[in-house]
Amino acid sequence: MARVASMVVRKLVKGGSGRLLSLVDLVLFSGNNLLLTLLISRVFGPEALAIFGIGLAIGLMSQSVGRGIYVVPGAVLSSRSARRRMSGLIAEHLICLYAVALFIISAFGLISLVEPEYSTASIVLTTLYCALLYMQADHDRFILLRFERHAVPPLLSAVNLIPLGLGLLAEYFLSAGFAVFMGLHVIVGLVRSIVVAWLVGGPNFRWGWRLLKTSIQKRGGFSLVSAGAYSGYNHIPLIILGHLAAPIDVAAFVAMRGLVQPTQMVFRLFDFRDKLSMRDQSGGTYEGLASQLWRVGLRNLLLSVFVGLACVLLGPSLSTLAYGSEYEGYSLLMVGHALLFMLMSFLLPIDSGVNILQWYNRNIYWRMAGGLVGACLAYPLAATFGAWGAVLACLIGWGVVVTGGIYVLRKVLFGTMRGRFPPSVT
Length: 426
What we know:
By secondary structure, the chain is mainly alpha-helical. It contains 16 helices and no strands. It starts with a helix and ends in a 13-residue tail after the last helix.
């Protein structure tokens, strides 16, 4: 009996420990981001939260470029190919990460010569932190899960709590300010990048540079255009709102998004696990890929509908619980962000399909259209309806992109394309 029990426990640990640790990672990572948003609002006020929102938008733009050039293409490689290239892939990531950090510092340095108020230490450090956090989030998990280091991602997510605690102590005892608070987060982000590289055996920068040049030649134009388009229907409306409206409107946009964003983080992390296995589980056939896309897409859609209903029923109560009366009257923005989340969750598997089949050119025109629509509508809608107008511009842009993605993959999704992938995509 003891032998049977021992065998059962071993099988559960072998099969389920990775999923359990991923769940812990999800809770820690998304919880830390929610806690960070709440503390910035409570401790440093709406102006700091507005700065954080703009920095977050720029950081997510950087993540979008990295995802398109090397992160997602690396994640959808077969396990064998990814392991063989690992030292080059980690070096490719570090080169991009530090190049983006230097670019952000240089860009804000130039801006300070013309508009000093737009290049304060708080803005620069907040943008740096968001870029480091989100550029590393997907890539680090991809690298570590390939090596079956399932325990490391939750540990790294837990480490993010350290600068949070130190920053609050510095503010409480020394009145150090928001810049110091974000500066501590930047330091931890830089250290994290070195630790992850060391854990997987170290980077080969010569190989990484060659891989990066190949990635840029193959996907650089697509990724930059795609990131620009993504900004049009996801970030530019917020940036335009920041120019048109008072800080309280921008802060309310960020605050209500912050209450929904943890669920977005959960879906993105689930999506990355899906991307790691989708090519292998498809069996290299269009029918197998269609089955995987429908499975993931419907799962995401059903769960996002649940999140949307929760926002409709509990939105005002959640807003009061999190922020008190600070953003009274803005709680319905949560419903708008929940709808955005629903569209995003359905687009994630479409993005996987496009990358696996390498149909970049077929998809980019729809992204450009969505970005153009979102950016063009942002000014009149935000000027007329404030934060609600910015959310509406995002929704319309996302709707165009999701519709286009389904159209691009229609022959795969609806079974009219059959057989095995061509050799060029396997």
